[in-house]
Amino acid sequence: MRDIVKIRGLKSGLQLSFANGASFEDVQANLLDKLETGSNFFIRGTTVYMQKDHFSEEQNEALRRMFHRHGMLFSYDYKQPVFAPVRATQPQQEIIEQPQVETKPSPMLVINKTIRGGQEVRTESSVMICGNVNPGAQVISGGSVDIRGTCRGMVHAGAFGDETAFIVADKLMPTQIRIANVIARSPDDVKDPNKAERASIKNGYIVFEPIMR
Questions:
Q1: Considering the entire predicted model, what is its pTM?
Q2: Which has the closest alpha carbon to 96: 126, 125, 120?
Q3: Which structural domains are found in the chain, ordered by start?
Q4: What tens digit of pLDDT does each residue of 58-115 get?
């Protein structure tokens, strides 16, 4: 059963492939065994990629839920991550852009406290944090992230592939930032430390832009 699931390491996660003729039940059982026995590959916060059309939508959803229970993310169609952030110089007049309208919008999670090092926030919806995100803390959101404070931890917005997601903070200085499959680090040149900033994807890159709160 060990050869049913093949794992290839990527810069932004793990790519899964399956043995020819392997049934969904065999694949699910093999993955569950690896998750529950503490395989070194499956670390909390890792994104797992697989082909969308390999199994049915119901079977894919079952795998997604299984990975989610073990603290992992599930996505399709891996794209090579981009590491070059760009910082815009001109402030924008609006606070945030509205995300695209969904047929079933998820409610926003609101957290009224600072997220300390070693703590993790994980949600399928957008999240607002009324406090800081300290170094060593992680925020992983299926939607957008709004931090009413200083961000110095790791933040992943659009974790299930939503490239319209964005990240806003009063001070945006993350150790690492991700939106969908694009990864960047905070630029060294801080134009105005007293201005809030928004990070979003533009032309395949994560762009940092000052905004008016």
A1: 0.54
A2: 126
A3: 5-76 (no CATH), 86-211 (2.160.20.70)
A4: 998 898 888 878 777 777 765 544 444 444 444 444 333 444 444 344 578 899 999 9
